[in-house]
Prior knowledge:
- The chain is mainly α.
- It is built from five helices and two strands, in the order H-H-H-H-H-E-E.
- Helices cover 57% and strands 7% of the residues.
- Helix 1 (2-29) crosses helix 2 (31-46).
- The N and C termini lie far apart (45 Å).
Amino acid sequence: MSNIFARGVQSSWVASFNRASNRFIQGVLAPERTQLRLLRTLLVRNCNTAFGRDAGFRTIAGFQQWQDRVPISTWHDLRPWLDRVEQGESSVLTREPVLFMERSAGTAGEPKLVPYTRSL
């Protein structure tokens, strides 16, 4: 009887890997769809942040609109937003709480503050 239980547990455990593996394979086979789904998730999650409202996250429908509204930025471009985070304001760049700000080593110029969240 315990052998049957052990086999059942093992089968469930192996199946859990298969689900993750299948999701990965589906993502690899349809990278544009996968990336669009991820983009939409991030936009919805962060549309009520200061940055998200400013960039119009709520109305971005695809990659081209994302590229038009959120250009490639340097740390210096983001400095005003990061200053607000450093001053303790919440929901500036992300809805996630900022756990701490870490000073970079500054190997490419002056040291910079980098906000850390749980998911980062």
